[in-house]
Request: fold
Amino acid sequence: MTLVSIIFAGILTYFTRMTMIALISRDRLGDRIKAVLEYVPSAVFPAIIFPGIFINDYGAFIEMNDPKIFGALVAVIVGYFSKNIIATILAGLISYWFLIFVVFS
Amino acid sequence: MLSKKQLFTRGMLDISPHMLSVIPFGIICGAIGVELGFNPYLVYAMSFIIFGGASQIVFLQLLSGGASSLVAVASVGIINSRHLLYGAVLSEYLEKLSFIKKLLISYVVVDQGFSESNKFFKKNRSEEYLHYHLIGTGCTMWVCWQIATLSGIILGSFVPEELGLKFAIPLTFIAIVVQDLKKIDHLIVMITCGLSSLLFFDAPFKSYIIISPLIALFVAALLLRLKK
Reply:
C-alpha cells in the first residue's frame, strides 16, 4: 500500500461526493428524476443491510438459524415502534449476544 | 429561523446516536489495518484522505490479498459511487451556496449524515442556513471516525472480536430506514435493493453496492408510473 494509491482512492471518493453537489445544476434534472430521487435512502441502504446480515466474513451465505437474522428482526420491531436509533441498535446487539453467549454457548 | 450554531448543534445531535455503531467499527477498521501488516501512518492516512468506512476495509483487504493497487483503487471508487446519489438528493438544498462552499461541504458527506440531514431538510425547507445541519452531521462523523480509527491503530483490537460488533453497522442502517417500512412503495424498493445486493454480491469490484440501488431506483420509477 502506497500513499499514492491512497491519494488516488481519496480523490476518486471525493469526486463521488462532490460531483452532484457542485458540478451538476439541479435544474438539469427533470421532475421525474427528482421524484425518483425521493427513494434514494430506501434504494441504497438495504444494499448495506442485507449483506451485513446474510453474508458472513468469508463471503458465504449464513444458515437460516443464524443469530444475526433474529437480531435484525428484533431491531426492526423495536426500531419501528420506538423510533429511536440507540434503542434499535442496542436491541439488535443484545438479542444477538443473548443467542450467541447464552442460548448457543 | 434557527441560527447557524443551532442548526450545527442540531446536526450533531441528530447523528450522534449512530456513533454507537460507528465508533466500534472505526476501531475495528484501524486495528485490521495494523493486523494485516500495513504501515500505521498509511492506515491512518486513509481515514483522513478517503474518509469512507467500509471502503477503507475493502481497500486494505484487497491489497493484503495480493490485488493490484489499480483494482483496490477502482473498488474504493465503486463502493463510494453511492455518494453520487446522495449528492443528487442534497443538491436541491445546497443550490444557493457558493462553489467553494459546495466543494468544502462535499468532503464531509457520509451515509448517516446524508440520511439524517436529508430527513431534517425535508421538514425544514424554509431555513436559511440549512447546510449548517449537514456540516454538523458531517463534522461529528469526521471527528469520531478519526479518533476511532486512530485508537484502533494505536491500541489494536481492544474491542473483543467475539462481540461481533461489525453487526452494529447493518443495525444502524435498519434504524435509518425502518420508519419507511410502512409505505408499501418504499417497502418494495427496499426489498428489491436487498435481494439484488445478495444476488450480485459476487459481482466484480464490490459493484453490488451500486448495481442494486440502480435496480431499486428503476423499480421506484416504475412504481411512480403505476401510481399516476
